[in-house]
């Protein structure tokens, strides 16, 4: 039986184009065969801001990584703008659907070196790093204008996550998949992350989509317009919508 998660009841969402659609996706533990994500249908429309909550080990990260096509699916498929994502189109899909992990992986060097790195990849050929824009994003997160010159090895946990988020936001993805990006961060750093994401979404709210995995119900209420829950690999609607 497939677990179907209905789309938002708000009419403007129903009339919005689909960005990402999961059709019967399944993930199993490759070692034990245990089902980590039960067969799930899911749709993210342009303009959607969703939060996914649930206990640890419920499958929240598994679901997000499956949507990002970072792990192989055991069944089902992912569609992008109504078209199935094929192997040859995965790089383009990942360019538009960006996954931000809980613990960022940074390169040696400065913050700017880390921000410049994506532009060395084939997927971003023809685009250039914009230091002015990156500096503005850093300042929006409460960091001084010389933040880009700091060594990555000297960053706090919050600063490392801000760097990782700016690295993604400067590339203008259409969808953000945020896997507990503020877990273990101090309140000030968490607020900076929320502000950056809100600015990104609001700039083109009718065209973008957001899924934020959080263990904090209060944060889920702040960052999302609708809440889903994950329990034992089953995705479903929260009992009450986020206000």
What does this entry show, briefly?
With 243 residues, this protein is α/β, with parallel strands linked by helices.
Structure report:
Pfam families: ABC_tran. Keywords: ATP-binding, Cell inner membrane, Cell membrane, Membrane, Nucleotide-binding. One of its GO terms (molecular function) is ATP binding. This is Iron ABC transporter ATP-binding protein FetA. The chain is globular. The protein has a single domain (3-237), classed as P-loop containing nucleotide triphosphate hydrolases (Rossmann fold, 3-Layer(aba) Sandwich). The protein has helices spanning 11-14, 60-67, 90-96, 111-116, 131-140, 157-169, 187-203, 217-223, and strands at residues 3-4, 18-28, 35-45, 49-53, 75-80, 83-84, 97-100, 175-179, 209-213, 226-231, 234-237. The chain has a 6-stranded mixed β-sheet with strand order 7-8-9-4-10-11, with helices on both faces. A 5-stranded mixed β-sheet has the order 1-3-2-5-6. Helix 6 packs parallel to helix 7. 36% of the residues are buried. By secondary structure, it is an alpha/beta fold. Helices cover 30% and strands 25% of the residues. The chain contains 8 helices and 11 strands.
